[in-house]
Each structure stands twice: as C-alpha cells, then as structure tokens.
Design brief:
homodimer, 136 residues, alpha+beta, GMP Synthetase, Chain A, domain 3, three-stranded antiparallel beta sheet, three-stranded mixed beta sheet, 6 strands, 38% strand
C-alpha cells in the first residue's frame, strides 16, 4: 500500500495520490501558515478511522443478519499537549438506519472498534476510544 | 477536530467531509466488495502520516536555515496478519529539492518523525517507522 505526496502550492498544500489514481488535497493548519484548503493530516487519520469503523460495522451487522440500510459516522479527535499534539481520545458517533437490534448493534460496534478496524488497531494503545450510537 | 462520513453508494463508498467543507471519497478494498473508487481507510492514515511528516520537515529545515525549494514523499505501509491487518511497518521516502546539508536533513527527518509529526506520534508504538531520502 503506497501513497505519493507532491507539493501543489507553497508552503504546505499537497496533492495526495493512491495507486488507483484517486487524489485528495492536504494542508497544514492555518496557525502555522497553511491555507486551510483540503484536509489537515490529523483529519485524514479521523477520516480513515471513521471509514474503517463504518465498513466493519456494516460487515458485522450483515453477518448478524441485521438490516442496516444506511450509516453515518461522526468522528471527533482530542489532542494532547505534547510537542506533536497527538490524539489522546477519539470518539465515534454512529447513526444507523434500518431494522437493527440494539444489543446486536452495541456488540457490533465493540467488535468493529476493538478487533476488526485496521485503522483503530494501528493507533497508539493509549488513545481513549469512545463510541455512541443512534438508531433512526 | 471533527470528520463526518455519509454513505454515497452501497455498499461502502463514503463521502468524507471536514469542518471547512473539504470532501474526499473513501471506500472498502475490492476484496470485500468495495468499488475501488477513492481512498481506502488505511491509505488515509498513510496520507496523513506523509502530509504531517512533510510539513514538519519543511518547518524544521526552515528553522535550520536550509533552503528546501520542494519536497515529495512516498509513504508505504506493511500490514500484519491480525484480524484487523493493522500496520506493522511504515516507511517514508523523502525527495528534497534545494540547497540542503545532508546531515541537517537527516537530523530534521528524525525530529519530524520521532518528535513532531502528530500522525506518527498517534500511531501504535510497535509500528516500525523507517525513512530514506534523496537530495536532488
């Protein structure tokens, strides 16, 4: 798995490309001179965590024969006071549409976040992972 | 810092939006039924790691009064055999243009990856982080 970054504009706007040719824009925070276009690097981590959690959740619900017709995820990150301002907590709020048993959903979210989500399992084990959900 | 994911297409194509309204597409691997459009979640982590490393490297080189006129980064991730297929190694290859002292560049890359890069410092400490560089 490979990602290529090339600078589009000074000082910090980058074109980011994957091996299929998909592109996105990434930039620094305006506090340090970025223009605010595109995604900040730490936002991309939250984006990856949310996508991965959503995909795994849908797969687990399907295995549980739960009929989730749609899902939205809101991912929020809190950062610490280290020089890197690393994440110290990430919370996921899942909104689920469909005929879904609440107990099974709770179990599916735990399995997704604690076992199957590649991104969450690649994060520092000290980061607090929290989740809430709503069935519509 | 907040990221919102909404499903665009079944089963796994998500619209990902940050608080400034920037959007990107994320999808599952084709192996599990994704269409291959957009970025896979784990690619977004590499994208974030590369952007953050590049930005911090440029900031450190500037403080060192090194004249880097451009930078590209290639980020490669290797995954383990756990159920989550988490990262076990991430390598960065930096291509730097400009008048840059090689010793200072090596030191700047170490500082960026080991101290300042928010994304790398948010990753599991067991992930092996490697780097190479080329000055053009």
């Amino acid at each position: 798995m490979e990602i290529k970054l090339t600078r589009l504009e000074e000082p910090f706007l980058f074109n980011v490309e994957n091996s299929n040719g998909a592109v996105l824009l990434s930039n620094a925070n305006q506090d340090i001179g970025g223009s605010g276009k595109g995604f900040r690097p730490m936002e991309l981590v939250l984006a990856g965590a949310g996508g991965c959690a959503a995909i795994d959740l849908l797969l687990i619900l399907k295995k549980q024969r739960q009929n989730a017709s749609d899902v939205q995820v809101l991912v929020t990150g809190k950062r610490d006071d280290s020089p890197a301002k690393a994440f110290n907590a990430i919370s996921f709020h899942f909104s689920i549409q469909g005929e879904v048993d609440e107990n099974k959903l709770g179990r599916a979210i735990s399995l997704a976040l604690e076992k199957y989500c590649s991104v969450v399992q690649s994060l520092d084990k000290n980061i607090i992972i929290e989740s809430t959900y709503k069935i519509n």
